[in-house]
Amino acid sequence: MQYPYDISVVVPLFNEEESLPELVRWIKRVMHAHEFSYEVILVDDGSTDRSWDVVCSLSAEDNTLKGISFNRNYGKSAALNEGFKRCSGEVVITMDADLQDSPEEIPALYDMIKNQRYDLVSGWKKKRYDPLSKTIPTKFFNAATRKLSGIKLHDFNCGLKAYRQLVVKSIEVHGEMHRYIPVIAKWNGFTRIGEKPVQHQERKYGTTKFGLERFVYGFLDLLSITFVSRFKKRPMHFFGTMGTLMFVVGLGITVWLIAQKMFGVYFEGRVRDIVDQPLFFLALVAVVLGVQLFLAGFLAEMISMASSKSNEYLIRDRVGSLRK
User: Fold this and answer.
1) For residues 223 and 299, what is the distance between their CA atoms, to the nearest angstrom?
2) Could you tell me the pTM of the whole model?
3) CA-based, 20 to 30 A from 217: which of 2, 86, 137, 157?
C-alpha cells in the first residue's frame, strides 16, 4: 500500500505558545537529515494563550505543517483522536508539545515500526525530570496497568509513541484513555507491542497541565477499558456468570436452611424459625441480585446485537478481488 508520507507526527497541545516554534524547527531538522517525507499535525486543545496564532503563523511558512483547533479544552485523548483521523503517514508518531520529548528519537522509532514490524512502540523515560509527587504515583500506576493488561511496558503514559497507521485508524480514544492506547491496541489484535528507552528533557517553558487527580481518573479508566475490551461483544459472559453464581449460592443456602429446619422438626420437635436467621436474608439478597445480574446481561446482549457496529470486525489486509 502506498502512503502519501513516511511519517505523520501528531502533537496535542494546550497553552504551549513558547515551545511550538522550537519544536517545529527541531522536527523539521530531524526529518530533513533522514530524508523522510512527513507531515506535522498540531492539535490545539482549546488553548487560552496565543498557541493557535503561532500554529497559523508556522503553517503559513511550511506546507508540511497542519493544524486543528478545538473550541474549548476537551483533553489529550480528544486531541489525539482527531489527529489520528486526519493523519496519512505510514508510521504515526505522537509526542508532547512541551519539548520534553525529543524528536531525535523519531528515526529509531520509525525503524522499529517499518523494519522490525512492531505494531506499536512506546517510549520509556528511564530518567525523568519530574518531581517525586509525579514520579512515585506514576510507578504505581504503571505497575497496576502491567498487572491488569499483561503488557510488559515500563511507561504507559509516555507521550512519545510510534504506530503503524492501521493501529491508529482502528482504535478510538476518548475520555482519558490516551494512557491506555497500548491496552486498547492489544484488545484490537495488535499484539506486537515494543518499548524503547527515550531521552526525557527538562521542561523549558511553562508548567505541567496535569494534577494528581489524573492518577485517580487513570485507575478508574483502566478498570473501564479492561472490562469493555473483554466483554463488549459478550456482556452475558460477565453478568450471566456472576448472576448465575450468586443465584446458585443463594439458592443453596436457602435449601440448606430448609433442610436444617425439617431435620430439627423431625428429630428434635422444635427448631429456630428460618426467618429469624440472618443467613436467610443474605441468601435472599444473593438470589435477587443473581436474577438482576442475569437479566442485566441478557439486556446488554440484546443491545449489543442490535448495535449497528455489532458485527464489524477489524480486517488486517485483503488480496485478489477483495483488495478494495
Assistant:
1) 22
2) 0.74
3) 86
| Superfamily designation of domain 5-231 | Spore Coat Polysaccharide Biosynthesis Protein SpsA; Chain A (3.90.550.10)
Return the number of other C-beta atoms located less than 10 Å from residue 132's C-beta: 7
* φ and ψ at residue 201, rounded to 5 degrees: -90, 150
DSSP per residue, 67-122: EEE-SS---HHHHHHHHHHH--EEEEEE--SSS-B-GGGHHHHHHHHHTS--SEEE
Q: pLDDT tens digits for 255-298? A: 888 888 787 777 766 667 777 788 888 999 999 999 998 888 88
64's grid cell:
508540511
Distances, alpha carbon 175 to alpha carbons 81, 122, 181, 225, 319, in Å: 10, 20, 12, 11, 36
Q: Are 120 and 196 in contact (CB under 8 A)?
A: no
170 CB-side CA count, 13 A: 21
**Rg for the chain (alpha carbons), in Å?**
26
**Phi and psi angles of residue 11, each rounded to the nearest 5 degrees, phi first:** -125, 105
Distances (CA, A) of 239 to 34, 229, 291, 296, 300: 53, 15, 10, 7, 9
The three three-digit cell numbers of residue 213, written as one number: 487527580
